[in-house]
Every structure is written in structure tokens, then in C-alpha cells.
Specification:
62 residues; transmembrane helix; mainly alpha; Cobalt transporter subunit CbtB; 3 helices
């Protein structure tokens, strides 16, 4: 049986070593865009728009 001393700081250090700044910036921009969309577009409006798009594309969803 071995003990695991992996800490949150170790995980952050590993992520910094593996993820380049452009990828991190892209992920942050995606999260910000999704947050903005859900906050200002409101979830029901976005849901209805996607629902109508699915029907327009011929996808049966219910």
C-alpha cells in the first residue's frame, strides 16, 4: 500500500506544465462566452431557439 501525497498545488503545477497559455486563454474565452450567453440571452430563450433549430434541421426531439 502506498501513500499518495498529491495536493491541489501539485495538480495546478502539473496543469501549468501541460497547458500552454493559448489553450488556457481559449478555454477561458469559451467559458466567458457561454456564461455571457446564458446570463444575457436567458436560458429559456436559448433553449427555445435551439429547439426550433433542431426541428428546422429535421431532428425529432420529442
Amino acid at each position: 500500500m502506498s501513500t499518495n501525497t498529491d495536493t491541489v498545488a501539485d495538480r495546478f503545477a502539473a496543469a501549468e506544465a501541460q497547458i500552454d497559455p493559448l489553450t488556457a486563454l481559449t478555454a477561458l474565452a469559451l467559458v466567458a462566452a457561454l456564461g455571457f450567453t446564458l446570463l444575457f440571452l436567458q436560458d429559456p430563450l436559448a433553449h427555445d431557439a435551439l429547439h426550433d433549430f433542431r426541428h428546422g434541421a429535421g431532428i425529432v426531439c420529442h
